[in-house]
Structure formats: structure tokens, C-alpha cells
Amino acid sequence: MAQYNTPVLIIGSGPAGYTAGIYAARAGLSPIIVSGDQIGGQLTITNLVENYPGFPDPILGAKLMENMRLQALNVGAKIIDDKIVEIDFGASPFECSSERHNLFSGETLIIATGASARWLGLPNEARYRGFGVSVCATCDGFFFKDKNVAVVGGGNTAAEEALFLSNFAASVTLIHRRDTLRADKALQEKLRQNHKINFEWDSVVEDISGTEAPLAVTGINIKNVKTDRRKTLNVSGVFIAIGHKPNTDLFKGRLDMDDQGYLVTAADSTKTSLPGVFAAGDVQNKRFRQAIVAAGSGCMAAMEAEAYLLKQKD
Questions:
Q1: Most exposed of 33, 140, 225, 305 (fewest Cβ within 10 Å)?
Q2: pTM confidence score
């Protein structure tokens, strides 16, 4: 067991956490980043990233996060690969205990625990993740230019993913377990007017098939829940769009959240409902799930933490 004390304690890695660490370190605040379950965040399961500024050639998501981690270390941040399991928000400084029985004390907290995509739990889903299976059309859609793809879901996210993919793909099949969508009426109308988009109603995906060398999706097996009729769709990409779950269980009852569990922050700010506690990245932004947006909010959180600490000294 070890004891760590810092002016800025960052919970969670990924673009938001690492960027917060970079900016806090450059401000001389000796930040500590506790990386959490998924070191590097969701981007580590993304195959190629080609929309992050500064990289003219596509870069592996895991490599991009490794670069951010090294940059944070190089400018003076300390990174502990551990998971915070309990926080005493009433203590000053805030006191946290970890899965590995370490103790952390922070004059400020930056929460960058992100959100986790909801998956279908199919046998081959994990095998082809990053090799045809994705949860982000904005991230991966370009790689399916002139190919057939499928989107699974029936809400606004699924509708938006399908419409975005239609800009690249030869065809988009939207698969929904019911016979009507939950998406906004305006989005539904856009889907119907798009000649590239077709529907498989009352259907669920039973499995994903593909090749082994190289790993690549070649099709999905679906079943109609009303007729039990099964068929195979020949697609190169499968986009799972059944929502995300913010990683905020640790903060329930202590910090304000919306009805979906995302942390609520002040307008144009990363400030949460508790002074000295800031939230950055997907844990508080459910609309723009992009690495560059998360990194930007991590920068904001570090700067706001610095301002908070200066005000406390004054």
C-alpha cells in the first residue's frame, strides 16, 4: 500500500485524462493520473484513427494513446495503473482508495472516467472489434467506402450513424428488433428518403462472420423475432449503435447527473456540482464522442483546476 498526495488528482486515462495531465504538469501542479480499468480509454480498441489533428497518416488508436501517455510522463505527470474504488468527497483534500489498496489525496479532482459502449454480446463481436465491428461511424466510416455495412439499433444514435455512413458506403442496412424506430421523426424521415438505406425490422443479430487472415468481417446472421426466419447479410462493417453507459457509478449521490447518468457541468465549463471537482471527456459529453473533443475538455479541466487552486491560496 502506498500514499500519494497531489494538487490535481486525475481519475481515468484516455484523451481527456492524459491531456489534463499534460496541462496540469506544465502548470507545475505535479498531477497524478490513476488510469482505471481500460488504460488509454476506448480509443485503444479503435483500429486506425485518421481524424486526429497533427497526424497526416492514419495512426493506430492504441499507438495514439501510447503517445499521449508518454507525453504526459515526459512533462512531469505521474501515472499509476490502478483503479479508484472509493472517494471521500467530504474530506479536504479529497481522499480516494484504490483497487490495489493505495491511498490518493487530491486538492482537486478531475474525473475522466469516460463512457463504455453497449455491446450485443455476440460470440464473434470481440474478435472482429476494430476489424469491421465498430461503435463509431465518425471514427471508422471512411474505411467502408463503397462497401455494404449494417447498423444495429433504433434510436437517434443508430439513425445518425446510418445517415453518416450513407456518405461513404454502397449500402446501409439498419437492423432493429422492433417494427418502428425510437429516433426523432425528422431523422426517420431522412432515413426513408435516403436510397442507400434499407431496413430489417423485427430482427436481431445472432452472430458475425468473417475471415481469420486477415481478420475481416464478411457478414452477419440475423433472425426475425416474429417469424424465426434466419438469413445472412453480406456486409463488410457492423456498427453497434445501442447506446453508451457513462462510467459514473462511483459518483452517484455525490455529484449531479442527468437522467442517463452523465455528469452535469456548468455551461462552458468542466465544473461539477461540487467545488474543486471537474469532469472532462465522455463522462460529461454524450453528444460529441470524439478524441479531439475529449482532449479539449481535458485541457479545460486542468486550467480550471489551476484557477481553483490559485483562488484557494488567495
A1: 225
A2: 0.77
Burial of 65 (0-12, 13-18, 19+ CB in 10 A): buried
- The tens digit of pLDDT for each residue in 120-133 reads 999 899 999 989 99
